[in-house]
Amino acid sequence: MADTAAVHDLPATPLIAGNKSAGDVTREVCGALDARPSGLWWIGLGLSFSALMLGVVAVAYQTATGVGSWGLNTTVGWAFDITNFVFWIGIGHAGTLISAILFLLRQRWRTSVNRAAEAMTLFAVMCAGLFPVIHMGRPWLAFWMLPYPNSRGSLWINFRSPLIWDFFAISTYLTISAIFWYIGLLPDLATIRDRTRNDAVSGFSRTRARLFGWLSLGWNASYSVWHRYEVVYLLLAGLATPLVLSVHTIVSMDFATAVVPGWHTTIFPPYFVAGAIFSGMAMVLTLMLVARKTMRLEDYITVRHVDAMCKLIILTSGMVGLAYATEFFIAFYSGNRYEQFAFINRATGPLAWGYWIMVGCNVLVPQLFWIPRVRRMLPVVFIISLLINVGMWFERFIIIVSSLERDFLPSSWASYSPTSIEIATLVGSFGLFFTCFLLFCRFVPVIAIAEIKAVLHPAQHAKDSRSVSGANASPTGRSHQEMTAPTRGIEAVDRACLVAVFEREDDLLHATAAARNEGLNIVDAFAPHAVHGLDRAMGLPPSRLPWVCFVLGLFGAAAILLFQYWTTAVSWPINVGGKPWNSLPAFIPVTFEVMVLCAGVGTVVAFIWSSGLRPGRRSALSDLRVTDDRFALAIGETAAFDRASIEKLLSPFHPVTFEERAL
Q1: What does DSSP say about strands 657-662 and 496-502: parallel, antiparallel, or unpaired?
Q2: What was the pLDDT predicted at 235?
């Protein structure tokens, strides 16, 4: 492609192209939501929605007719349904993992990919959750998986079943991923709210401003809130990382706890996790390239981001290839003739064609990314990412079907082939996934606006606009006097402040330090993104949210552990495989999931409550563009308050204006 041909020294390529300012980021990313959809977007939506409707018809027919409409038989009781379930769970894993781990490792390039990756997680887990419900045959009874008091006597779910572990793992993962995604959206929702409110001329714009005002919970860019926000986001990332590893480990236990040849192996947990990360990264790369073209975001999703993702795919492809080789070695070294036959049958039996598609797409094709020129050829990268997803689907299909078709007794061997209903259901799941993603791209920023602003070069945070025309201009074309007019209807008016507005974060940081050194009453600071070091300059105390997270997690773990013991050993004792009723190891998966759920949800609730966020709350300084590209410092009036001396103190830091406000 033309935009990649000029890239010769990739490490020198900026993260964000085009020498953007913070105002440019707001205008262009939000502009992609305001602009008319491109032709490619409409084509993609039409195809995906058609596939979704095909899947809806297939599921409706299967629900009315029964699972006999599938190609299952006595030998192969699991096939397309569980294959698609494991495939979509794997796709969903890498989204939150990429965002969380790269955040913990402070990788700046994640800022352009994390929002799409997190959304991908939600949509993939939605697709995955459909298949166990469909496979039940009576999907309207899915709520029986919940441990709730019922009218059937002291009948509780079996907490020692891997299927129950799956339910808790997936439910927790979906909940934490959704919260992680939504918390990351709060600053961007406020940015769109203020921009739309200032630009609102039509009924639709005013409606959107009110909607985003409600969803943003009254985010006002206050740095006391930013301080807690960074802590809660870090805690959620720390909780999500082991959660991702646990979920696919639990899914692998559905197979590893069986005695079917080819499944009964301890390599499955790390094998499944590695495969999930690999397939998820390939899907993230696919969606990045789709969003890049359909939403015209070439300056924000650059060749440098694609190159970094390709390198991670090389790493995870090597892990998957090692797992394939290890499986064969374990079967050979074990001396178990059934295990040996299972793997020889995979490579040479009736499904050998699928096995070699798996190996070719997952191990051989990704090696092309070792060539730097290939990593810069975006159409080739797109094709390779699609092939990887094809290969990972066949990996799950081969693991499941080839092991079931040929079990211990040749007399019970049976072949399997999917019916049109199963194929249509698979197509429908892809339709649901891509329909949700394309709609997400149209209504929510696919790029994390606040995080992008934080990684811009300091010289790029604000272009030199100290001329009269530059200082008084706004992204909407209105004058500075119009942008800084007093806001009507401000809530929580309790103290008068002098608000100094700056164009650069460095100026705000130094002005805050100077004001604190002079003993001034710093009420708060306001910024469109987190300014590192500002909490120390303001003298903010450490947040107590980590302790809240720890206590709530400990309480959740203790409560669910006692509940499992009571239901299993006291209220409804069940003999499962001769194991004791108080089988502690079987309680650990559910205990871990509930611990993470309580810690994550409880910490977010504590953050929202302690920050004073609530739907409908008005932001007092929205007209000063503090959620866009300006920075503000609020100094409270005291007995020794002298505006002239304060303005003189802060004048070396290039304030744009001073405003007297009630905050």
Answers
A1: antiparallel
A2: 93
Residue 662, beta-bridge partner list: 496
Taking the C-alpha atoms of residue 211 and residue 193, their distance in angstroms, rounded to an integer, is 8
| Contact between 286 and 383 (Cβ < 8 Å) | no
User: What is the distance between the alpha carbons of residues 616 and 61, in angstroms, rounded to a whole number?
Assistant: 44
CA 139-595-245 angle, to 5 degrees, is 75
Q: Is 638 exposed, middle or buried (0-12, 13-18, 19+ CB in 10 A)?
A: exposed
DSSP assignment of 335-397 equals: --HHHHHHHHHHHHSTTHHHHHHHHIIIIIGGGGGGSHHHHT-HHHHHHHHHHHHHHHHHHHH
**Which residues, other chains included, contact 392 with Cβ-Cβ below 8 Å and sequence gap of 6+?**
87, 90, 275, 278, 279, 282, 358, 361, 362
167-188 pLDDT, tens digit per residue, is 898 889 889 989 999 998 998 8
Please answer whether residues 219 and 190 qualify as being in contact, where contact means their C-beta atoms are separated by less than 8 angstroms.
Answer: yes
Question: What pLDDT is stored for residue 483 in this prediction?
Answer: 36
Per-residue pLDDT at 457? 55
Tokens representing 493 are: 């008016």
What residues have CB less than 8 Å from 490, skipping those under 6 apart?
A: 618, 620, 662
- Structural tokens at position 131: 């298949």
In sequence order, what DSSP letters do the residues of 68-92 get, joined into one string?
Answer: GGS---SS---SHHHHHHHHHHHHH
Alpha-carbon distance 92 to 127, whole Å?
9
pLDDT of residue 592: 93
| pLDDT at 4 (0 to 100) | 41
Grade residue 424 by pLDDT with cuts at 50, 70 and 90: very high
Q: Alpha carbon of 559 to those of 240, 246, 522, 553: distances in Å?
A: 21, 20, 43, 10
Average pLDDT, the chain: 82
The C-alpha angle with vertex 470 and arms to 464 and 471, in degrees rounded to 5, equals 90
> What average pLDDT does this structure show over 240-266?
85
Q: Are residues 534 and 512 in contact, defined by beta-carbon separation less than 8 angstroms? A: yes
DSSP per residue over 279-312, as a string? Answer: HHHHHHHHHHHHHHHHTT-TTTS-HHHHHHHHHH
Distance CA 100, CA 10 (A): 25
Angstrom distance (rounded) from CA 330 to CA 244 = 26
